Amino acid sequence: MTYKMYAGIRQIARVNFMRNQNILHYKILAKLGEGGMGVVYKAEDTKLKRLVAIKFLPRQTSASAEERERFKIEAQAAAALNHPNIATIYAIEEVDGDIFMVMEFIDGKELQQVASGRLQVEKIIEIATQIAEGLQAAHAKGVTHRDIKSSNIMVTESGQVKIMDFGLAKIAGGAQLTKDHSTLGTAAYMSPEQARGEPVDHRTDIWAFGVVLYEMLTGQLPFRGVYEQAVIYSILNEEPKAIADLRDGVSTDLVQLVQKTLNKDADQRYQNMQALLADLRQPVSAPIVLPKAEKSIVVLPFKNISPDPENEYFSDGLTEEIIADLSKVQALRVISRTSAMKLKATDKDVKTIGRDLQVQYALEGSVRKAGNSLRITAQLIDAATDAHLWAEKYSGTLDDVFDIQEKVSRAIVDALKMKLSPEEQQKIAERPIANVQAYDLYIRARHEILQFSAEGLERALKLLQQGLELAGENVLLLAAKGYAHWQFFNAGIKAEEAVLQEAEQSVQRIFSLQPESVYGYRLLGLIQVSRGNPRASVRYFARALQIDPNDPDSLMWLTLIYSTVGRSALAEPLIQKLIAIDPLTPSNYMFACAPPFYDGRFAEALESIRASYELDSENIAHRFFYFFLLLLNKNFDEAFALVDLMLKDAPEHFYTRLGSFLKFSISGEKEKALDALTHDIKIAARADWQYSTLVADGFALLKEKEQAYDWLENGVTCGFINYPYLARHDPFLENLRGEERFEKLMAKTKVAWEHFEG
Fold first, then answer.
1. Does residue 347 lie in a domain region?
2. Residues 6 or more apart from 305 whose CB is under 8 A from it?
3. Which pLDDT band holds residue 431 (cuts at 50, 70, 90)?
């Protein structure tokens, strides 16, 4: 028996033995796959209660010091990469002579499986863009994958791409552990230089990327053969079959891109992923088209006249659902839930409300709920004349609530003499949660989520779980559950990757039920915002707005992202739309200052943030950004007085500390400025592109140039690529301009800014 045969038998025995066994604190659940550099298992991390993938070095090679070293370098290389499109490495472990790597478990399909059917070109570009972004991040760290292929790329249910197995990674400047002339990559995806056994660099990944893209577009590989040597001959000597011969509808630009990636001369290919991405991405310079509304309405909060005041949540829920129904009519501008609920218990008459909100109509009503019995009244009012256009009473039980809700929405549409498209009629007739008890739990949970407290979020999750047990898998319940998990991170209650992963699990379940769900795309956008990935978040929010042009969250976040990356022309129509449907939310005016602020129009931005501050002067975020725009407009006395007020009310708050740092930096009080910038504040600011640039402003004012450059470079790396703002508009960076290091950073930033595509 040869050693190879013996080792293989031993490996099979080991696989069978390991199933359902514990290795350290990892419980082996199943074998996922096996390659030249190891065996991969699905396992449970019993300490952190999460699924992981663990990859073992085969026994026959683990005895080799060279192979063990190579495996460790693979882990170190991959662990240094932190990007949404690269599988995360959690740990490297060793036990009883076995060495293994603990990785993120990806619940999805190999790209090879996903692309087995004919994907739309738009979907192919979306997948390819994510692959390219992941490779760009790896190359920026000096890591070349060298084994890119469709079976090494996973796609989750939500459409997120994950590049797997940097198993053949070559570390620039590190030990070259791959033997000369070995052909370790899968033959069909090898670059010519790799096939010849020559030294390779990141351009070999660009070639392999081109092979994958060709494969997705045509359903076949560009270089084929019965034997490996025949494939290699084809790579070195033949040209692929023309894409046009295999598929219609592929643009000339995309065909040329594929051809350039597959140039046999590495010097004639794209020289970096950044240049490739600039050609790959569809331009976002065409603004999102928002339909013009012909008529407008506000749904005033329905009054709770039930014997039990605790039924307030039900009347609020009915208000929300009617708003949601009417928002599906594209020709109708509907004031959002957030603004509408601010009118609860208002003493303003309908005429005043209509004038303030610039709406033509108002709907008001009441709800009486006693046990299972329900009585609802509703009336439609002309806001200009106070004339009652329509009124109706509805009686029934909780089981009838969906019918009543639909009847009210349809009656309003009829009274306004509006015609619904078949799609709009279908949407209004939809029953998002058919089980009435589950619907009641959903409304209660929404109320808890909006308390923005740890206790409220925990209560919401329990209510939603009860709802899921009653109704089964349901898009609305899952969306609320995912939003609750994300809110833990967003509110700083539990700023851990684990809660974002929980939110992602909800997204995957949503898309399995409804592949084109506005809730799923919006939640994905929020998750990517929290992960600092603006490009991905733009894609998801833009898709959400294509489905629902009135989605306030997507409008708000797209406004902010477009503004911070220097695309104010794209941001401005979005914020105008947001304020039109949600005019009473003070923070919307804070976001409205973003386009002029990042465009260098500081006086205009100040007027907008002042409106936000005057509507809610207790909000510390409003105070901080009002303070900073006062600085930019050289209103130093008023700005400093605002920081003093923040110090009095919330001395340890992040915004107070950062505001104090900037105040003392401007006044030249270096010691006080540095005292304000505590270790905790630095950690929080370091993770955010915007706050990093503000800290850079302070250090530049203090003439601490090394620190200023460090923070400025961090801001750019994190995504602050607004070249005009940094290069020209920000007055606090003036003493850096003209210096070689600044100009080099601006040249890099300019390329990223010019090529930003969402």
1. yes
2. 366, 367, 368
3. low
